[in-house]
Amino acid sequence: AQSVAQPEDQVNVAEGNPLTVKCTYSVSGNPYLFWYVQYPNRGLQFLLKYITGDNLVKGSYGFEAEFNKSQTSFHLKKPSALVSDSALYFCAVRDMDSNYQLIWGAGTKLIIKP
Amino acid sequence: DSGVTQTPKHLITATGQRVTLRCSPRSGDLSVYWYQQSLDQGLQFLIQYYNGEERAKGNILERFSAQQFPDLHSELNLSSLELGDSALYFCASSLQAVSEAFFGQGTRLTVV
Predict the structure, then answer these.
(1) How many angstroms away from the CA of A16 is the closest CA of chain B?
(2) Is the separation of the CB atoms in A85 and A78 below 8 Å?
(3) Which of A43, A75, B53, B54 is disulfide-compatible with B103, CB 3.0–4.6 A?
(4) Alpha-carbon distance A19 to A65, whole Å?
Protein backbone atom coordinates (compact mmCIF):
# COMPACT_ATOMS: atom_id res chain seq x y z
CA ALA A 1 0.00 0.00 0.00
CA GLN A 2 1.12 3.51 -0.71
CA SER A 3 2.10 5.54 2.31
CA VAL A 4 3.78 8.70 3.51
CA ALA A 5 5.54 9.08 6.83
CA GLN A 6 6.52 12.24 8.64
CA PRO A 7 8.53 10.82 11.52
CA GLU A 8 8.60 13.97 13.64
CA ASP A 9 5.46 15.37 15.23
CA GLN A 10 7.30 18.59 16.02
CA VAL A 11 10.53 20.27 14.97
CA ASN A 12 12.05 23.14 16.93
CA VAL A 13 14.58 25.45 15.27
CA ALA A 14 16.15 28.73 16.28
CA GLU A 15 15.55 31.67 13.99
CA GLY A 16 18.31 32.00 11.41
CA ASN A 17 19.29 28.35 11.59
CA PRO A 18 18.67 25.89 8.74
CA LEU A 19 15.58 23.75 9.05
CA THR A 20 14.65 20.29 7.79
CA VAL A 21 11.24 18.64 7.93
CA LYS A 22 11.43 14.96 7.06
CA CYS A 23 9.21 12.92 4.78
CA THR A 24 9.57 9.36 3.53
CA TYR A 25 7.27 7.59 1.14
CA SER A 26 6.36 4.17 -0.18
CA VAL A 27 4.80 3.96 -3.62
CA SER A 28 4.86 1.72 -6.63
CA GLY A 29 6.27 3.38 -9.69
CA ASN A 30 7.54 6.92 -9.91
CA PRO A 31 6.39 9.20 -7.10
CA TYR A 32 4.59 12.51 -7.49
CA LEU A 33 5.48 14.32 -4.25
CA PHE A 34 4.17 17.51 -2.69
CA TRP A 35 4.71 19.75 0.32
CA TYR A 36 2.03 21.97 1.84
CA VAL A 37 1.98 24.44 4.73
CA GLN A 38 -0.97 25.21 6.99
CA TYR A 39 -1.12 28.29 9.18
CA PRO A 40 -3.59 28.30 12.12
CA ASN A 41 -7.24 28.28 11.05
CA ARG A 42 -6.26 28.47 7.38
CA GLY A 43 -6.37 26.13 4.42
CA LEU A 44 -3.33 24.28 3.16
CA GLN A 45 -1.03 26.21 0.85
CA PHE A 46 0.97 24.47 -1.85
CA LEU A 47 4.73 24.92 -1.41
CA LEU A 48 6.43 22.75 -4.01
CA LYS A 49 6.31 19.49 -5.93
CA TYR A 50 8.53 16.85 -7.45
CA ILE A 51 7.37 15.15 -10.61
CA THR A 52 10.56 14.44 -12.47
CA GLY A 53 13.91 16.04 -13.22
CA ASP A 54 16.28 17.76 -10.83
CA ASN A 55 16.32 16.18 -7.39
CA LEU A 56 16.43 19.60 -5.71
CA VAL A 57 13.12 21.38 -6.07
CA LYS A 58 12.65 25.02 -5.20
CA GLY A 59 9.35 26.36 -3.98
CA SER A 60 7.58 29.25 -2.32
CA TYR A 61 8.87 31.34 0.61
CA GLY A 62 12.47 30.18 0.16
CA PHE A 63 11.70 26.52 0.78
CA GLU A 64 13.26 23.68 -1.17
CA ALA A 65 13.03 19.92 -1.04
CA GLU A 66 15.45 17.18 -1.93
CA PHE A 67 14.18 14.06 -3.62
CA ASN A 68 16.24 10.96 -2.80
CA LYS A 69 15.09 7.88 -4.67
CA SER A 70 17.37 5.40 -2.91
CA GLN A 71 16.23 6.55 0.52
CA THR A 72 12.63 7.15 -0.65
CA SER A 73 12.72 10.54 1.02
CA PHE A 74 11.55 14.03 0.16
CA HIS A 75 12.77 16.29 2.96
CA LEU A 76 11.74 19.93 3.12
CA LYS A 77 14.53 22.41 3.80
CA LYS A 78 15.22 26.08 4.24
CA PRO A 79 18.68 27.60 4.74
CA SER A 80 17.62 30.22 7.30
CA ALA A 81 14.43 29.88 9.33
CA LEU A 82 12.07 32.75 10.08
CA VAL A 83 9.68 32.98 13.01
CA SER A 84 6.91 33.35 10.43
CA ASP A 85 7.73 29.86 9.12
CA SER A 86 6.14 28.42 12.25
CA ALA A 87 3.23 26.34 10.99
CA LEU A 88 2.04 22.81 10.27
CA TYR A 89 3.71 21.12 7.30
CA PHE A 90 2.25 18.23 5.31
CA CYS A 91 3.95 15.93 2.83
CA ALA A 92 1.81 14.10 0.25
CA VAL A 93 2.23 11.65 -2.64
CA ARG A 94 -0.06 10.72 -5.51
CA ASP A 95 -1.19 7.09 -5.40
CA MET A 96 -0.98 5.90 -8.99
CA ASP A 97 -2.74 2.65 -8.09
CA SER A 98 -5.78 4.37 -6.63
CA ASN A 99 -6.98 6.95 -9.13
CA TYR A 100 -4.09 9.27 -8.27
CA GLN A 101 -5.52 9.91 -4.83
CA LEU A 102 -3.35 12.07 -2.59
CA ILE A 103 -1.86 10.17 0.33
CA TRP A 104 -1.00 12.49 3.22
CA GLY A 105 1.52 12.40 6.00
CA ALA A 106 0.33 13.14 9.53
CA GLY A 107 1.91 16.58 9.52
CA THR A 108 4.86 18.12 11.35
CA LYS A 109 4.53 21.15 13.56
CA LEU A 110 7.44 23.50 12.95
CA ILE A 111 8.27 25.96 15.70
CA ILE A 112 10.83 28.67 15.04
CA LYS A 113 12.06 30.37 18.20
CA PRO A 114 13.41 33.94 18.12
CA ASP B 1 -5.83 33.38 -2.62
CA SER B 2 -5.93 29.82 -3.95
CA GLY B 3 -8.95 30.43 -6.16
CA VAL B 4 -10.98 27.77 -4.36
CA THR B 5 -14.02 29.23 -2.59
CA GLN B 6 -15.81 27.56 0.28
CA THR B 7 -19.00 28.72 1.94
CA PRO B 8 -19.92 29.24 4.66
CA LYS B 9 -16.73 29.93 6.61
CA HIS B 10 -18.34 29.11 9.92
CA LEU B 11 -21.37 27.02 10.80
CA ILE B 12 -22.86 26.27 14.19
CA THR B 13 -25.65 23.76 14.35
CA ALA B 14 -27.33 21.36 16.74
CA THR B 15 -26.96 17.62 16.95
CA GLY B 16 -29.27 15.72 14.63
CA GLN B 17 -29.38 18.52 12.07
CA ARG B 18 -28.32 18.52 8.42
CA VAL B 19 -25.97 21.00 6.76
CA THR B 20 -24.62 21.60 3.27
CA LEU B 21 -21.11 22.87 2.58
CA ARG B 22 -20.38 24.39 -0.78
CA CYS B 23 -17.19 24.52 -2.83
CA SER B 24 -16.33 26.33 -6.04
CA PRO B 25 -13.11 24.99 -7.55
CA ARG B 26 -10.46 27.02 -9.34
CA SER B 27 -11.44 27.96 -12.85
CA GLY B 28 -10.70 25.05 -15.16
CA ASP B 29 -10.07 22.47 -12.43
CA LEU B 30 -12.06 19.29 -12.97
CA SER B 31 -11.17 17.42 -9.78
CA VAL B 32 -12.66 18.29 -6.41
CA TYR B 33 -11.65 16.72 -3.11
CA TRP B 34 -13.23 16.93 0.33
CA TYR B 35 -11.28 16.55 3.54
CA GLN B 36 -12.07 16.62 7.24
CA GLN B 37 -9.59 17.94 9.78
CA SER B 38 -10.39 17.60 13.46
CA LEU B 39 -8.63 19.67 16.11
CA ASP B 40 -4.87 19.09 15.99
CA GLN B 41 -5.37 16.19 13.62
CA GLY B 42 -4.20 15.41 10.15
CA LEU B 43 -6.28 15.38 7.03
CA GLN B 44 -8.90 12.71 6.56
CA PHE B 45 -9.81 12.20 2.92
CA LEU B 46 -13.54 11.94 2.39
CA ILE B 47 -14.29 11.84 -1.32
CA GLN B 48 -13.08 12.94 -4.75
CA TYR B 49 -15.00 13.90 -7.87
CA TYR B 50 -13.73 14.33 -11.38
CA ASN B 51 -15.86 16.17 -13.91
CA GLY B 52 -19.07 15.21 -12.15
CA GLU B 53 -18.22 11.59 -11.47
CA GLU B 54 -17.19 10.09 -8.17
CA ARG B 55 -13.54 9.09 -8.52
CA ALA B 56 -12.43 7.91 -5.09
CA LYS B 57 -13.91 7.41 -1.69
CA GLY B 58 -12.14 7.62 1.63
CA ASN B 59 -13.36 7.41 5.20
CA ILE B 60 -16.69 9.04 4.52
CA LEU B 61 -19.52 8.16 6.87
CA GLU B 62 -22.83 6.96 5.46
CA ARG B 63 -24.42 10.07 7.00
CA PHE B 64 -22.29 12.17 4.67
CA SER B 65 -22.76 12.52 0.94
CA ALA B 66 -21.41 14.73 -1.80
CA GLN B 67 -21.88 15.58 -5.42
CA GLN B 68 -20.29 17.62 -8.15
CA PHE B 69 -22.59 19.57 -10.41
CA PRO B 70 -22.30 20.28 -14.17
CA ASP B 71 -20.78 23.69 -13.45
CA LEU B 72 -18.16 21.78 -11.41
CA HIS B 73 -19.05 23.23 -8.03
CA SER B 74 -19.46 20.64 -5.31
CA GLU B 75 -21.53 20.23 -2.19
CA LEU B 76 -20.89 18.11 0.87
CA ASN B 77 -24.01 17.15 2.80
CA LEU B 78 -23.69 16.16 6.43
CA SER B 79 -26.77 14.74 8.15
CA SER B 80 -27.77 13.46 11.60
CA LEU B 81 -24.91 15.50 12.94
CA GLU B 82 -23.09 14.39 16.06
CA LEU B 83 -20.77 16.30 18.38
CA GLY B 84 -17.83 14.38 16.90
CA ASP B 85 -18.52 15.83 13.47
CA SER B 86 -17.23 19.18 14.66
CA ALA B 87 -14.20 19.87 12.51
CA LEU B 88 -12.72 21.91 9.69
CA TYR B 89 -13.94 20.73 6.30
CA PHE B 90 -11.72 21.53 3.36
CA CYS B 91 -12.37 21.43 -0.32
CA ALA B 92 -9.51 21.27 -2.79
CA SER B 93 -9.30 21.21 -6.57
CA SER B 94 -6.75 20.22 -9.16
CA LEU B 95 -6.43 20.55 -12.90
CA GLN B 96 -5.23 17.05 -13.65
CA ALA B 97 -4.99 13.78 -11.81
CA VAL B 98 -1.28 14.26 -11.10
CA SER B 99 -1.35 18.00 -10.46
CA GLU B 100 -0.99 19.72 -7.13
CA ALA B 101 -4.25 20.42 -5.33
CA PHE B 102 -5.27 23.89 -4.20
CA PHE B 103 -7.24 24.26 -1.01
CA GLY B 104 -10.04 26.53 0.07
CA GLN B 105 -10.02 28.26 3.44
CA GLY B 106 -12.31 25.67 4.89
CA THR B 107 -15.64 25.59 6.69
CA ARG B 108 -15.45 25.33 10.46
CA LEU B 109 -18.40 23.26 11.61
CA THR B 110 -19.36 23.29 15.25
CA VAL B 111 -22.04 20.88 16.40
CA VAL B 112 -23.55 21.74 19.78
Answers:
(1) 27
(2) yes
(3) A43
(4) 11
Angle made by CA atoms B3, B6, A108, in degrees to the nearest 5: 80
- For A111, other C-beta atoms within 10 Å of its C-beta total 13
Per-residue 3-state assignment (H helix, E strand, C coil) for B65-93: EEEECCCCCEEEEECCCCHHHCEEEEEEE
Best residue in A101, A108, A109 for a mutation probing chain B (most B CBs within 10 Å): A101
pLDDT by residue for chain B (112 residues), tens only, comes to 889 999 999 999 999 999 999 999 999 999 999 999 987 678 999 999 999 999 999 989 999 999 999 999 999 999 999 999 999 999 999 998 788 999 999 999 999 9
CA angle A60, A64, A70 (to 5 degrees): 145
Please, which residues have CB within 8 angstroms of residue B83's CB and are 6 or more apart in sequence?
A: B15, B111, B112
